[in-house]
Amino acid sequence: MFGVVFPNRSFPMDISAFSQIDTFHWLLDMNTFVGDAYDQVREICIFLLNNFTLPPDKALAVYAQSPGSPFVFCGAVTLARPSAVLSLPWPDPPSAASGEQLQIAAADAVPPSAKIGVSVEDLALLPSLDVAAEKRIELLAMKVGENLFNFMQSFCGVDGSKLVVPMDILDRWFKKFQEKAKRDPEFLKRFAL
């Protein structure tokens, strides 16, 4: 049905590496794969196998779960997008409320482990197929906005409770922004980091 690779960390693994929970849900216990170092695994590549046909209105969704935390959606693959490299945004594990609770949990034997979950879901119900790309775009937009604000602030005056800027400030900023981007190919890349 599907396979996964952890770039620079594993060979391709097929569905047999996962525990099947039911017809549409699979789990990979990261403790058996990397032990406590699960948070160092930052990406997963998931792909549909050639002989598997996923219905066009369905997606294979990928989730990450840190020990004791809820699952976090990472992205998905579909027939139109049969493979993807997804970031694994491991949620921070919840802190123990007290040392006593921690001792009780430790006495209960098996510690909770990080997991990768894969499930077949309705494509229309998924938020976005590539969560990491959305976050990069959001970060880029915020950094460009911050650049504009800093530029405008250097030219503004104060009139009561209002900031006053020259009328051509946006044109001046945009020209300067474009010139920097032309002169320095790394300029825009620094915004995305």
Secondary structure layout plus pairing:
Elements: E1 2-5, E2 13-14, E3 19-22, E4 25-29, H1 30-34, E5 43-48, E6 58-65, E7 72-77, E8 83-87, H2 99-107, E9 115-122, H3 131-153, E10 157-159, E11 162-164, H4 169-183, H5 187-192
Antiparallel strand pairs: 1-2, 1-5, 3-4, 4-9, 5-8, 6-7, 6-9, 10-11
What is the count of DSSP helices, taking H or I runs of 4+ residues? 5
Overall tally of domains? 2
Low-confidence stretches: 97-107
The value of Rg in angstroms is 23 Å
**Overall form:** elongated
SSE sequence, one letter per element: EEEEHEEEEHEHEEHH
- Largest sheet: number of strands, sense, barrel closure: 5 strands, antiparallel
Strand order of the largest sheet: 3-4-9-6-7
Alpha-carbon distance between the termini? Answer: 35 Å
Task: Write down the overall mean pLDDT.
Answer: 80
User: Level of helix content?
Assistant: 25-40%
How does this model look, in words?
The protein is α+β, with helices and mostly antiparallel strands and 193 residues long. The protein has helices spanning 30-34, 99-107, 131-153, 169-183, 187-192; strands spanning 2-5, 13-14, 19-22, 25-29, 43-48, 58-65, 72-77, 83-87, 115-122, 157-159, 162-164. The strands form three sheets. The protein has a five-stranded antiparallel beta sheet. Strand 10 and strand 11 (162-164) form a beta hairpin. Residues 97-107 have low confidence and may be disordered. Belongs to the OPI10 family. GO terms for molecular function: nuclear import signal receptor activity.
Features:
193 residues, alpha+beta, 2 domains, 5-stranded antiparallel β-sheet, 4-stranded antiparallel β-sheet, 11 strands, elongated
